[in-house]
Amino acid sequence: MPMLTSVDTRPMQHCETTTLGVLLRHQGIDLSEPMLFGLGRGLGFVYWDSKRMGFPFLGGRVKPFELSRNLADTLGLELSVRETSSARRGWANVVEAIDSGQPVGLQLDSFHLEYFTAKVHFGGHVVALYGYDDRVARLVDTEQQGGAVCTSLGSLAEARAARGPMAAKHRSFALTAPRDLPALRTSIMASVTACAHAFLNPPIANLGHRGIDKAGKAVRTWLRRSDDPGRDLPQAALLMEKAGTGGALFRNLYRDFLAECAECVDSDHLRTGHRLYAEAAALWTEVAALITRAGESGEEQYLVRAGTTLLDLSRIEREAMEALSRLES
């Protein structure tokens, strides 16, 4: 049975950072989840709604797999990515990686994985594969999904072949570390300022601080926007707090990243950013609670309060990113 026994299967909160952690620890690099998320410039925001959607979507990070590309760029890692429309070739790519002694990352649709209890289609889910036999694949998923888990080869094939928003064609990837990593201080400076500039200068109004402002105005209408507010609003709040975000729509992770950065970068701008993101994280959790209460009670007053808090968050996060954008000055 091909299985890598030396793999550290320690899970984290978010799927992509969990997988990156597995791949990097196998290369001898052990970084905390907040550091992986921050160096990967993972923080973002998107408010998305359209007539074809059942309910609006709030996202707090960059699009799937962009974090992995960013982290490889920041740390000078070799990121080997394979995609194919052939299920046979896609599986052969996985077998080749395992046989060479390397765990491999997979992007797939979590709906088909047998250990998932919440059956929702999400084509941007990422796991690490470290072994298989003639029946099952051995994966590392998030802590809330069980960490080291198994799923049948058939379900894995379905998950990898799924199509839809954010899906990839049997994508697998591996990381190879250079002999010497860049200085951590240099990597922090580059990633923090790049993330700040992207957040402050979104190409459309749905993204970054402008997107939070837009969400603050739109959320007040959510009772009328939904056919089933008692279902949709608590579900939206649950996704903000529990769906691999680390809580507070990824703001807890970025707050902790900035705190870790402050241990090796002495900067008032960094300390300001950390203080403001600590404030923002608490407010995002408050927004989720207000949205839940609105759905359960049917009372619009909670959405009005959530909207006001989101407008405050747009300002707070803009001020935080303005400070962080000046980190190198």
UniProtKB/TrEMBL annotation:
<feature type="domain" description="DUF4872">
    <location>
        <begin position="155"/>
        <end position="324"/>
    </location>
</feature>
<dbReference type="Pfam" id="PF16169">
    <property type="entry name" value="DUF4872"/>
</dbReference>
<feature type="domain" description="Butirosin biosynthesis protein H N-terminal">
    <location>
        <begin position="14"/>
        <end position="142"/>
    </location>
</feature>
<dbReference type="Pfam" id="PF14399">
    <property type="entry name" value="BtrH_N"/>
</dbReference>
<protein>
    <submittedName>
        <fullName>Lantibiotic ABC transporter</fullName>
    </submittedName>
</protein>
<dbReference type="InterPro" id="IPR026935">
    <property type="entry name" value="BtrH_N"/>
</dbReference>
<dbReference type="InterPro" id="IPR032369">
    <property type="entry name" value="DUF4872"/>
</dbReference>
